[in-house]
Amino acid sequence: MDPVRNPYAPGAGQRPPELAGRDEQLAAFDVVLERVARGRAERSLVLTGLRGVGKTVLLNALRGAAVRRGWGTGKLEARPDQPLRRPLSSALHQAVRELGHPEEDQRDQVLGVLRAFAERDAGRDAKLRDRWSPGIDVPPARGRADSGDIEIDLVELLGDVGGLAQDVGKGVAVFIDEMQDLGPADVSALCAACHEISQSGLPVIVVGAGLPHLPAVLSASKSYSERLFSYQRIDRLSRDAADRALAAPAAEEDAEFTPEGLEAMYAATGGYPYFIQAYGKTVWDLAPRSPITAEDVEVAAPEAERELAVGFFGSRYERATPAERDYLRAMADAALGQETDAVGAVATADVAAVLGKKPQSLSPARDALLKKGLIYSGERGRIAFTVPHFGRYLLGQE
């Protein structure tokens, strides 16, 4: 089949041609936007799920919905080695610009507070690379959002930005990807700011996305975070949604799958959106003609698996040290023959038993893998891969 017309798009955060199976989340977010715009109380939103389920894609789609309503929006990706101030400042600067407040004095006043917030940790003698360059012409404000306490400063900053949005009858939405990578102080500050904003009724919401243990991260910071956010688990697609993700783009290119071909694709991909796009692209390129059959899927599967092994699984596996790789393989071995839960979690004691070591001696490897985002702990004493089918990949390597 013509590779130029291949409609499938495997890529990190790349929107698929058919955003199937997320209608419920998009509709719910439209309600949130409308309620906030009308001054109604509404919680911020947190999306959780494994890697490859389309959290970033959905986050971008939600942002697009806010932009279409005229909201000010900004997005950032949290990183373990980066404090929140600078990336959040850039995101809020973009949001303020998108609001288009007609009163220049009021806008400049908020921009001055924003600049003061961003530059608080950079002293007078800070190097150029440590200074924030936001393109804000107004001087930094004094006595507002510049105390040095991130919790106090963030509450004040979001309060001022929310007031600016309220003036023009719009809202502000901040989108945070990889939210579990925020530092403890930043998580605490963000929760406190969301709590304060919700009490004051200002039109500001935070939409975060992260791995399945993100709710536990937030709860450990502030006990009230369980009631502060609306949590939505983003999972693999149902069979109907997966079929639509494959069939609709194909139909746009005057092609189709046989029913058996769609069944074979679901069996191979497990309904995970990234795998659907990866397999879809490879199967399209190798299939001789339309309709695409189960035999075409069988022929293309090894090539699709090879590409996933390099780009999706292998790139993550290479980040692990030899000791950490032993731990990962032991997790895969421990899951064999066991009845695991929905995410394939195994007991840390079982992993230690596979390696013939005491659980305490494996703590450094486990903690390092947690920090690298290769595994997560949804409950005490149990761990799971953050990447679907990773255990299968590891067993195949052996």
From TrEMBL:
Q: Which InterPro entries match?
A: AAA_16 (IPR041664), Cyt_c-like_dom (IPR009056), P-loop_NTPase (IPR027417)
Residue ranges of domain Cytochrome c in the record:
166-317
An example Gene Ontology molecular-function term: heme binding
Keywords from the UniProt entry: Iron, Metal-binding
- Residues of the region (Disordered) are 1-21
Protein name, per record? Unannotated protein
